[in-house]
Specification:
Strand order of the largest sheet: 3-13-10-9-7-8
Shape: globular
Largest sheet: 6 strands, parallel
Low-confidence stretches: 1-7
Order of helices and strands: EEEHEHEHEHHHEHEHEEEEHEH
Mean pLDDT: 95
Bound molecules: guanine
Distance between the termini: 47 Å
CATH topology of one domain: Rossmann fold
Number of strands: 13
């Protein structure tokens, strides 16, 4: 709870109005959206259509990647999608991986294909993303789809930026003419996020900060919206944000802790202190993460409908 000197009474005197910080509840929104997908799939099946089908390839045994792929599989089951998960050993050759992708690319009953990143070092990740058929590239990582995003053509928007946009829209966060600072310039989050925020419909003025930015605070202190995707726990402090800003935390890192699980999940934002200063914030967990998971379902359904001319 904070006090804002925002309103004047009939004697034109300032008085203080208590304001609650909006918690942008991605978990609840994703649940609602996922249920809608489930209902839509049930109707499609009832009408005699096959189920949408997402294929995922995981190479190796990276703990976080295994968790993500398991979640994606669970989400598919929940909404009634078919899912095929190919768990390949860490020493799979690039050639074998490319053959697997090619086999899936030409399977007309697969609507979406993702290769979980990162891939082991002996495999060229760019070569892999470029080998996925752009029509079923539901991650939106292929250069053709990135290019379409850049010129505002219809495409698959990568799941995390898509989820963030949905959250901002759902909670009625004004973006037009606002200064949006994106911290991080990754191909998966920061770069597409910055493009989307400046596009027509959102119309923000965007600054992209990254590891070579001299004084990030100088930019974040004037930002109306801060989107942080750096993977450094509690990177964004209260002293770096403007009173009343909207804060989107994309980070989620396991930090060792003395509890049963042995770790706690931390975002890129120092949540407790920033929450007291901003007007809206995403929690971690339960903010952007569930929306990312929804984004993949959305893109797979989009591909499916296009294939079946629905
Ligand atoms: N690794 C981290 N995020 C992602 C994602 O959204 N898609 C894929 N394929 N790999 C990832």
């Amino acid at each position: 709870m904070k006090l804002y000197a925002t309103l004047h009474n009939s004697h034109n005197m300032l008085y203080f109005c208590p304001q609650m910080t909006k918690i942008l509840d991605g978990k609840a929104l994703a649940l609602t959206l996922r249920s809608k997908v489930k209902e839509e799939v049930a109707v499609l099946r009832e009408a005699g259509h096959r189920a949408p089908h997402l294929a995922a390839i995981l190479v190796g045994q990276d703990g976080a990647s295994m968790t993500y792929v398991n979640s994606k599989e669970k989400d598919c089951q929940y909404v009634g999608f078919e899912s095929s998960v190919y768990r390949l050993s860490a020493d799979t050759t690039e050639k074998d991986l490319l053959s697997k992708i090619e086999a899936i690319n030409t399977d007309k009953n697969v609507d979406g294909l993702i290769v979980q990143l990162p891939v082991p070092k002996h495999i060229d990740a760019t070569k892999i993303t470029e080998s996925i058929n752009p029509d079923i590239d539901v991650d939106g990582f292929h250069t053709l789809n990135v290019g379409k995003l850049t010129i505002d053509e219809d495409t698959y928007i990568s799941a995390t930026p898509f989820g963030v946009i949905m959250l901002l829209e759902e909670y009625g966060i004004e973006t037009r003419g606002k200064h949006c600072v994106v911290i991080g310039r990754s191909n998966i989050v920061g770069r597409p996020m910055s493009i989307l925020m400046s596009q027509g419909g959102r119309d923000s003025t965007v600054t992209v900060c990254h590891r070579h930015t001299h004084d990030i605070r100088e930019f974040t202190k004037t930002a109306d919206i801060v989107i942080v995707a750096v993977g450094i726990p509690e990177f964004l402090k209260a002293s770096m944000v403007k009173e009343g800003a909207t804060i989107i935390d994309v980070g989620i890192t396991r930090v060792d802790a003395d509890n049963k699980r042995g770790y706690v999940l931390k975002g890129d934002v120092e949540y407790a202190s920033v929450k007291e200063k901003c007007s809206a914030i995403t929690p971690v967990p339960g903010g952007v993460g569930p929306m990312t998971r929804y984004g993949l379902l959305h893109n797979t359904l989009k591909s499916y409908k296009k294939k079946l001319n629905l």
